[in-house]
Amino acid sequence: MAYRLMSAERVGDGLKRIICEQIDKADRRLAAPASERAEAIWDARKRFKKVRAALRLVRGTIGESAYKAENRCFRDAGRQLSWSRDQQVLVGSLNGLRAQRALAPLAFDAARAELAAQAEAARERLERDVEVVADVRDRIAGARLRILSRGFERDDWGALSPGLKRVYSDGHTALGDALRSGDAEHMHEWRKQVKHLWYQLRILRTASPAMLTPMADQAHELAVVLGQDHDLWLLSQWIAGWQAQPSDAEVDADTPALITVVERRRAQLHDAAQPLARQVYGQKPGAFVGGIGAAWDAWRDQCRSIQR
User: Fold this and answer.
1) Residue 7, exposed/middle/buried by CB under 10 A (0-12, 13-18, 19+)?
2) In which band, very low, low, confident or very high, does the pLDDT at 182 lie, cut at 50, 70 and 90?
3) Which of these, 12, 164, 265, 283, could form a disulfide with 288 (CB 3.0-4.6 Å)?
4) What is the pLDDT of residues 213-234, one digit of tens each?
């Protein structure tokens, strides 16, 4: 079924279904043959993030200790698999700058060759490292059983509104921090909050598709921009470390120009993020959640009238 609440579902039943479906899909992907593992890990980590966003939505309903335990479980599971994905991200980010390679052709070619070699080594390691994948599968299987046993005390908007408001408020705070500092740490925190919001709006969108689908699309667009910025920052850090290693003199001379290309693109992304931020975070948290809550209540009333 879809990553959204259905009209006939109680809140607890729907969230359990959504979370367990994501766990099951991640587990099936991680069971793929070794030759498919790189793509499988990318998909599994994405599903772990969707689980964590769903858990945040019902954080106040399942209790803080339960939320923290399950969030930590899926955070750590994703981190166990992150090293293999990082190399692929660096290669993709560098390839995305290909159109500007004339500014630093020697450094670009040398960096791409080095990253490709590292990505291949990571892929080979991943195919061999079956124990890590097995451990992650065990972790999420245990989490699935715990989540199915969790109790949900409420079945109204009050089961969801505190979690949504917290994520939207945290996004407001992260946005302010990112705009004030512009540093990678604050930008990355903002990106995480935007992605939580995007996933939560997708869960809720059945209540009012006309209102919530465009809001989710805007959050997704902002998350993509911020994700590209973060990936380029990782690339700049890698280039700085690579530059410090002995290499061809001509390549060394060209490397600062490559870093300039990366930073120029990051500046463009920062500019692109600002109008999107105004769209996504243009309301105060109370008004944002109140508007969605009104749509939710109207939808639930309609569902009950149809069922009578």
Assistant:
1) middle
2) confident
3) 283
4) 999 999 999 999 999 999 999 9
